[in-house]
């Protein structure tokens, strides 16, 4: 796999992260389901997955960049598996609504484990780490740049919505209202 | 509040990875990841009614 192809795949992975963050927002704004603290932590770790690909696009693919995403994916798997286990007892209705039969926190470990497998798979291709003779755009081209800014924008938007939801104190275990909007209403 | 700070820190790491220096991005990423694990462990040891 050439360096250019690896960068394209990294840009695609950023669109994947953006899709996950957008799906979480869809549940929040369309279904009016506010994310619980553990849900927010999983969102943060999905966003953290994007740092490795951003570095790969900017500086070229390096094993250390993939390792960063692997660490974030492992942490995300642990957090999301814990939430699955919290709701595993028979009779537990779970938290929030289901998407295609699974709750969002059940999709989360599937997503994180898929990320681990894909990261391991892309690490198999050594040629991407060699100096490439092809002249690459300094920032990967418009496709990659759009992906980077999309993920950054979604993460920045989460700063605002999380502040509105949790306010300046601890986040509620089962949030139903935006703390800051409640106080100003 | 800690989740807002973690989102903010993650967004900053992304911006530094995209526009700033690579070693700084790597270091800050490590700090954010440690903070995430610490937040998880802090909540995981609490007795909470839901979610954690």
Counted by DSSP, the helix tally of chain A is: 7
Mean pLDDT of chain B: 89
CATH class group of chain A: Mainly Alpha
The biggest beta sheet of chain B is recorded as: none
Query: Structural class of chain B, please?
Result: mainly alpha
Please list the strands of the largest sheet of chain A in the order they lie side by side.
1-2
- Element-by-element helix/strand order of chain A: HHHHEEHHH
Biggest beta sheet summary of chain A: 2 strands, antiparallel
Estimated structural class of chain A: mainly alpha
Roughly how many Å apart are the termini of chain B? Answer: 16 Å
Structure commentary:
Chain A is mostly helical. Chain A has one domain: Bromodomain-like. In chain A, 67% of the residues lie in helices and 2% in strands. Chain A is built from 7 helices and 2 strands. Chain A has helices at 3-29, 37-48, 51-59, 63-86, 104-123, 141-166, 179-184, and strands at residues 98-99, 102-103. In chain A, strands 1-2 form a two-stranded antiparallel sheet. The longest helix of chain A is centred in the N-terminal third of the chain and has 27 residues, at 3-29. The model of chain A has no long low-confidence stretch (mean pLDDT 90). Chain B is mainly α and 52 residues long. Chain B has one domain (2-44). Helix content of chain B is 79%, strand content 0%. Chain B has helices at residues 2-19, 22-44. In chain B, helix 1 (2-19) runs antiparallel to helix 2 (22-44). The longest helix of chain B has 23 residues, at 22-44. Chain B is elongated and about 40 Å long. The chains are: A mainly alpha (185), B mainly alpha (52). The A-B interface holds A 36-41, 43-45, 47-48, 50-51, 54-55, 58-59, 64, 68, 71-72, 75, 78-79, 82-83, 86, 95, 139, 148, 151-152, 155-156, 158-159, 162-163, 166-171, 173-174 and B 1-4, 6-8, 10-11, 13-15, 17-18, 22, 25-26, 29, 32-33, 36-37, 39-40, 43-44, 48-52.
């Amino acid at each position: 796999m050439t360096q250019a192809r690896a960068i394209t795949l990294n840009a695609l992975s950023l669109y994947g992260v953006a899709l996950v963050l957008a799906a979480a927002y869809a549940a929040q704004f369309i279904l009016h389901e506010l994310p619980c603290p553990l849900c927010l932590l999983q969102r943060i770790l999905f966003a953290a997955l994007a740092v490795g690909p951003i570095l790969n696009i900017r500086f070229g693919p390096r094993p250390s960049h993939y390792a960063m995403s692997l660490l974030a994916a492992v942490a995300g798997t642990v957090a999301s598996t814990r939430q699955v286990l919290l709701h595993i007892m028979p009779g537990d209705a779970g938290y929030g609504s289901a998407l295609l039969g699974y709750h969002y926190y059940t999709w989360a470990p599937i997503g994180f484990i898929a990320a681990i497998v894909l990261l391991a798979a892309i690490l198999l291709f050594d040629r991407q780490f060699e100096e490439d003779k092809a002249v690459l755009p300094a920032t990967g081209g418009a496709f990659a740049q759009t992906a980077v800014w999309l993920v950054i924008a979604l993460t920045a938007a989460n700063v605002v919505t999380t502040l509105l939801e949790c306010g300046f104190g601890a986040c509620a275990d089962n949030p139903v209202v935006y703390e800051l909007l409640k106080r100003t209403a | 509040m800690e989740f807002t700070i973690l989102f903010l820190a993650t967004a900053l790491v992304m911006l530094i990875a995209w526009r700033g220096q690579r070693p700084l991005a790597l270091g800050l990423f490590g700090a954010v990841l440690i903070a995430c694990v610490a937040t998880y462990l802090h909540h995981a040891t609490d007795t909470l009614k839901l979610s954690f």
